[in-house]
Amino acid sequence: MAANSSIDPIDIGTLRTLVLVYDLRSFSATAKRLDVNQSTISYAVERLRGALHDPLFVRNGNGVAATERCAALVGWARDMIGEIDGLASPVAFDPVTAQGSVTISCNYHERQTLIPQFSARLRAGAPQVRLVLLDAAGHGDVHLKQNQCDIVLGPVGVVGESFFRRHILTDHYVCVMDPANPLARGRIALSAYARAEHVFITHSGEWQPLYLAALKARKIEIAPVVSLPNHDSLERIIAGTRLVATIPHHLARAMRGGLHVAALPFRVPISIDMYWSARTAKSGLHKWARGLLAEVAKACDKGHAA
Amino acid sequence: MAANSSIDPIDIGTLRTLVLVYDLRSFSATAKRLDVNQSTISYAVERLRGALHDPLFVRNGNGVAATERCAALVGWARDMIGEIDGLASPVAFDPVTAQGSVTISCNYHERQTLIPQFSARLRAGAPQVRLVLLDAAGHGDVHLKQNQCDIVLGPVGVVGESFFRRHILTDHYVCVMDPANPLARGRIALSAYARAEHVFITHSGEWQPLYLAALKARKIEIAPVVSLPNHDSLERIIAGTRLVATIPHHLARAMRGGLHVAALPFRVPISIDMYWSARTAKSGLHKWARGLLAEVAKACDKGHAA
DNA sequence: TCTAGGCCATCGAAATAGTCGATGATCTTG
DNA sequence: CAAGATCATCGACTATTTCGATGGCCTAGA
């Protein structure tokens, strides 16, 4: 036995043994209780003696007496073991006291539709958790890969199997226009749609709306007369003009102004999915947040169907 | 790897590895730093994963990213390691904040001579430490063996090699008597001493004063005219009489009354020693207390010589 | 797009550490 | 003093940990 060996090779089980020996004031009783050989306890105490630089237990007739320092060390070991056991077992997550942050990378669409209610419920349920939003801008997958966010939300189609995915709602494109627009009068024919004065949302060139691919498949080409980098001024741009924009239905609903919403002559579904990585897969906070997000999306979908 | 193995086989060194991997965000850098093989770190993290029920680190391009739970666990591990290191290394004992108690088994002699000053200095230096005194009554060795006391003080001569011993002062016997006693007039001859009216202290029959053995060796027999169980009323008993008592010099000095102190015609040294056991040998408090006791004894000895 | 280089996971062999059963030394008890 | 109980120690055995080599995956730069 080295005189002053380090505490490093002492494991938690050995600390438990120390406490038990202290309580029972007996090596052999401890061995019986732990169902091991008595010499195993002797050896364990021997290691503890070296690591803690104290005899810990000294022979005293039949049995052993604990040193002063041993008593102090046992008191501390008890505290530590309790704390360890609490931490080692999966934490019962409690949103009310939860700390930390949830970072979501998404686009204008989600920020206008899902996020407001999600934020409200997050703040109500977990007041100490911070919510951080990033603009995905077509790079949601990068944000996720580089751990810049915890969740990517949107119609991204992240590549690879390295991420978890959960579908949370399905949207589809609709057409919005000024109520005075002739197209607002009835069903819109495909040819009429093709001839309309279109506003395009370019997403700063980072992403192409899905309906364009659907049009291409139908060999229809439409050219924009107005191009906007995002949806934020769309409503004001269209109002009082003959412009039409093709945008997700949820987004159209979210526009409180007086634009007319019309069905498209073709249906293009938009699958809004939630992606996350192994890093946050088992986190209580993030599991809870993901559940909440799915719930909000479901409620949003219901409202849409009604 | 078992899915939910216990934390028991995790040792402190492995926790240190966890923290280092977290700080460096790299297994191989950790391996280099610790001068071990990279697979050793992989294996260590694997064990931690099982014990803590969390992936802890997930691959993230070149390098790894820590999970939320990992960050929390590392925070806790840091605290714990700091505490452990503080406890594992011999404690820097600070009397001012020290808690605990010091139990001393001794006799009237020491209680009258050394203990008062020891108590005063103990209370001044370590206000939160309790001092407990036991009456040795010839059983100091038993008190020590059975852990009923921390220190035995006195001329005991504890048997066996199982105890530590430190000599703290040497006393010797003197004779005390009323100042009017004829013997008080000059040096006392051995024959006159033998004929005197002796008071014996019997120590309740548990212990024989050492000077009796010295007299026996000189073939001198003295018979007591008064026998007392201890020294406490000796002064009042002798005052105004022709009685003489043979007692340790320090004790005689401690008697503030007007008794005459005379040297004996023979010198019998009394070695006052301090005994303790392995149980308290390394205790900071007890080491300090023993040092203090020796210091007090030394001062007492000086005062005696002067 | 492809390649070089870095990273962690995994494997079998070797080294290390822990456990066992038996025995020894010491103490208490009757 | 003998019987019974305690912890310490020993050699043999077993389990765990470490090593070196290899493989798969990712990034960065040509």
UniProtKB/TrEMBL annotation, chains A, B:
<comment type="similarity">
    <text>Belongs to the LysR transcriptional regulatory family.</text>
</comment>
<feature type="domain" description="HTH lysR-type">
    <location>
        <begin position="10"/>
        <end position="67"/>
    </location>
</feature>
<dbReference type="InterPro" id="IPR005119">
    <property type="entry name" value="LysR_subst-bd"/>
</dbReference>
<keyword id="KW-0805">Transcription regulation</keyword>
<dbReference type="InterPro" id="IPR050389">
    <property type="entry name" value="LysR-type_TF"/>
</dbReference>
<dbReference type="GO" id="GO:0003700">
    <property type="term" value="F:DNA-binding transcription factor activity"/>
</dbReference>
<protein>
    <submittedName>
        <fullName>LysR family transcriptional regulator</fullName>
    </submittedName>
</protein>
<dbReference type="InterPro" id="IPR037402">
    <property type="entry name" value="YidZ_PBP2"/>
</dbReference>
<dbReference type="GO" id="GO:0003677">
    <property type="term" value="F:DNA binding"/>
</dbReference>
<keyword id="KW-0804">Transcription</keyword>
<keyword id="KW-0010">Activator</keyword>
<dbReference type="Pfam" id="PF00126">
    <property type="entry name" value="HTH_1"/>
</dbReference>
<dbReference type="InterPro" id="IPR036390">
    <property type="entry name" value="WH_DNA-bd_sf"/>
</dbReference>
<keyword id="KW-0238">DNA-binding</keyword>
<dbReference type="InterPro" id="IPR000847">
    <property type="entry name" value="LysR_HTH_N"/>
</dbReference>
<keyword id="KW-0536">Nodulation</keyword>
<keyword id="KW-0678">Repressor</keyword>
<dbReference type="InterPro" id="IPR036388">
    <property type="entry name" value="WH-like_DNA-bd_sf"/>
</dbReference>
<dbReference type="Pfam" id="PF03466">
    <property type="entry name" value="LysR_substrate"/>
</dbReference>
<comment type="function">
    <text>NodD regulates the expression of the nodABCFE genes which encode other nodulation proteins. NodD is also a negative regulator of its own expression. Binds flavonoids as inducers.</text>
</comment>
